[in-house]
Amino acid sequence: MAKLLNIEGLKVEVEGKEILKGLDLTVRAGEVHVIMGTNGAGKSTLFNAVMGHPKYTVTGGSIFFEGKDITRMPVDERAKAGIFMAFQAPIAVQGISVENFTRSAKSTISGETQRIMPFRKKLKAQMEELKMDSSYASRYVNDGFSGGERKKTEILQMCMLEPKLAMLDEIDSGLDVDAVRVVSQTVAKYHNDGNALMVITHHSEILQALQPDVVHVLIDGKIIKSGGSELIQVIEEKGYDSFR
Fold it and tell me: Which residues, 6+ apart, have CB-to-CB distance to 62 below 8 Å?
């Protein structure tokens, strides 16, 4: 399988504090990678650095996407290249509806104007799959949404934008059992041999649907262990101290 993402010796600072301390990671098309680790280990920092968030300063190493060095590339160019991030705490965006926001983003990323009716039809079908009320399409993005609806809106955007690499930062946190099942099934259905998923989670429920290919244990800014799904059981039984 072709390499989508290749990270070499990545070091990242946030407000002068080093968070990632020489991280290496390779993600290939068709794979599901799970990032697990203690709070403050650098999991979200990793995702934000790959996405190009300006708050996260790369002080060493390189990030390659489909063989191209994107270490200094701006966020919008990374999105156009096919990288997507679903945030742990999605913010509200007043003044623009979910439909218009998503259609505008799709037009920008694809370089093609999205015709209203076909796009609306596809959006409605995707919302039904996520068990979202169709009225949310006309509401401002995340404005007055519950935590669960905000997370579903993130997955809705992912399905509509069709990225090559989707990074999901605790997309299951704050969801009830039914919502976790719906989101997990939708993400699993989206995944195919042509794209890849990176998932941060502290829970095993979502992983039952996604069936990860690789599990990484991230502690103190470095991946100290990578393996298969068996690592999840080790973490649940013995905690992260067993890897120190």
Answer: 7, 8, 9, 10, 69, 71
